[in-house]
Amino acid sequence: MAEINYAWTFNAETKEPEDLELRELELPKLSKEEILIENLAIALNPVDWKVIHPGMVSQDGYQVAGVDGCGVVVAKGPNANVNIGDHVAYHQSLARHGSYAHYSVVDSSVVFKVDPELDKTIAAALMCTGLTAWQAIEKLPLAKNARFIVNGAGGLVGRLIVELALSRGYDVITISSASHHDSLIQSGVSAVFDYNDENWNNALVEYLGNERAFIAVDTVNKESAEAMYPFLDVNSHLIVIQDRIASNPFPGFDKAISIHEVALNAFHKYPSKRELKSLRVGFEYLCKNCSHIVSGRLDKINFQDIPKSLAKLKAGYRGKLVAQIE
């Protein structure tokens, strides 16, 4: 184990992802519940560039960027509930130094055990995206054959939600670019619509007829989520992934649509045993059943290329970027 930790950081003056600074940091002392993870894979997420602002800088005067990683436990506090040598994945709290580093200090109670044989890049990629998809599907009542719309099904979170919804017996309808239609149809969805077609919403209304959807999940933005209203049934459910709807925009005492938000980082602030158990079940399921979906989208990069790759992600790149550390 090295004595120096190389980490990509930002400070109060940092404006853009490409301005991240590589620092040499001393390895910190661990508290009783903490572990030190030697990162083998680091997944990049949109939240990583969204939180580059002065309010997120720690009292150290800098902040290690990133939230998702996977690696090997190389040191532990006396009360940590993992063993040295364990392979673990983690989603780091935004209140702590992140994953863009050779080593990360993580609370041992919120890590996820990983099969040593599993590709660590897949495990890291399934943290934020996979657990977000799992949180979304777990909010919903089971209703076999009920119509389930996924808007933004071409993105990885949307694609994983499609897979989870199909596994639970929903009748899945997707909205995405046409480039994803063949794979979505092969997966078992009942209908696909192209958001680049200016008439897609009318076509979807016609397809639904009198049987509107019981559930819609939107992975795009707040405005896109609100536009799901015409497609939803009475007493139905709307899940907003990318944004949140602060106040109900729909007519009162009308369709009575339940609006759900998803906030993965909340389990750090409110360490619910029930929620952590659910997330661990979800991570295990995703690793066993959805790794093929992730592997086909991975774009593996080098650790030194993280800043320019994060800038690429901010500019709209749709693949799943994961840095490897050898």
Q: How many DSSP H or I helices?
A: 11
* Element pattern in H and E: EEEHEEEEEHHEHEHEHEHEEHHHEHE
Major β-sheet, in short? 7 strands, mixed
Total number of strands: 16
Q: Give me the secondary-structure category.
A: alpha/beta
Spans where pLDDT lies below 50 across 5 or more residues: none
Q: Choose one word for the global shape.
A: elongated
Please provide a written account of the structure.
The chain is an alpha/beta fold. The chain has helices at residues 46-50, 120-125, 128-138, 156-167, 181-187, 200-208, 222-226, 266-269, 273-289, 291-295, 306-314, and strands at residues 4-10, 21-26, 34-43, 63-64, 68-76, 87-91, 103-107, 111-113, 147-151, 171-176, 191-194, 213-218, 232-240, 258-261, 298-302, 320-324. Helix 3 (128-138) packs across helix 4 (156-167) and helix 3 (128-138) crosses helix 9. The mean pLDDT is 96.
In a few lines, what is going on in this structure?
The chain has helices at 46-50, 120-125, 128-138, 156-167, 181-187, 200-208, 222-226, 266-269, 273-289, 291-295, 306-314, and strands at 4-10, 21-26, 34-43, 63-64, 68-76, 87-91, 103-107, 111-113, 147-151, 171-176, 191-194, 213-218, 232-240, 258-261, 298-302, 320-324. With 326 residues, it is α/β, with parallel strands linked by helices.
What descriptors fit this protein?
alpha/beta; 326 residues; 7-stranded mixed sheet; single chain; 28% strand
